[in-house]
Write a structure and sequence with these properties.
Length: about 270
């Protein structure tokens, strides 16, 4: 008999229970095997394979260019590293809006080809047919409201959303709809803290905020921002825990100096 005890996996049910118990949910983005190993070892609850990969991994200005194939590549790399965290994958722009059959096919490809546990979509009532169809196939769906980066060209800017009563009301209605449809959690991005708190108290599913203040049921950040790997991004909501861009650059410069002056490799570093 094996004495090896497997780490208890986080599931969508775990998150709901955490909300019930008033326990905060932690989520960070991950896009590759090595970082996902560290994320999982840290005890993070959820790893989001975000379409922010388009920005931080591929260098695009927006999240729009990343493809379904590329998301599957990132997601499968993450899944291979993870033993405990719930892995949620963004359906990329163009893979689920407008046609629920296409949405279902995209979600099924993500689940089948990457082995991830759930998908995330941006938007409320306008994409409800897609959400219903994905859910009907047994694929868990996380919603995303407020600032939805896939619609950046409609918004025009990355400023705080739903400051006006009408947009706030629409957001409340969309949040209630996503809860009713059966989404398991909801990301609230860059909206006033009071509104995020009100929504979090009014729906049963957990809310996970980014720039939504402290009253949401959990928090998410882009890992590269938290670690200071990105340099020129300073929104008010971001807390940087490291300045890895400079730390890594310093290490690389030390290596360059060592090689150039013949210090690397030394006697012990050769055969
Ligand atoms: O793609 C992403 O990283 C996200 C988070 C910012 C929530 O959607």
């Amino acid at each position: 008999m094996s004495v090896h005890k497997e780490a208890k996996r986080i599931t969508t049910h775990t998150l709901r229970e955490m909300k019930r118990q008033g326990e905060k949910i932690t989520m960070l983005t991950g896009y590759d095997y090595s970082m996902a190993r560290i994320l999982d070892a840290s005890g993070i609850d959820v790893i989001l394979v975000g379409d922010s990969a388009s920005n931080v991994m591929a260098g695009h200005e927006t999240t729009l260019p990343i493809t379904l194939d590329q998301m599957i590549y990132h997601a499968s790399s993450v899944v291979r590293a993870v033993q405990k965290a719930l892995v949620v994958v963004d359906l990329p722009f163009g893979s689920y809006q407008g046609n629920s059959k296409v949405a279902l096919e995209s979600a099924i490809r993500i689940m089948k080809e990457s082995g991830a546990h759930a998908v995330k979509v941006e938007g409320g009532s306008v994409i409800q047919e897609s959400i219903k169809r994905i859910l009907s196939a047994g694929v868990p769906v996380m919603g995303h409201l407020g600032l939805t980066p896939q619609s950046i060209y409609k918004f025009g800017t990355y400023t705080v959303r739903a400051r006006q009563e009408e947009e706030a009301q629409q957001l409340m209605e969309d949040a209630a709809l996503l809860d009713e449809l059966g989404c398991f959690a909801l990301v609230l991005e860059k909206i006033p803290a009071e509104l995020a708190g009100e929504i979090s108290r009014s729906i049963d599913i957990p809310t996970i905020g980014i720039g939504g203040g402290s009253q949401t049921d959990g928090q998410v950040l882009v890992t590269h921002d938290l670690l200071g790997l990105t340099k020129d991004f300073h929104p008010r909501f971001l807390r940087r825990y490291l300045e890895l861009f400079d730390t890594i650059k310093d290490a690389m410069q030390e290596y360059i100096v060592d090689v150039r002056r013949g210090d690397f490799p030394n006697q012990n570093e050769q055969y």
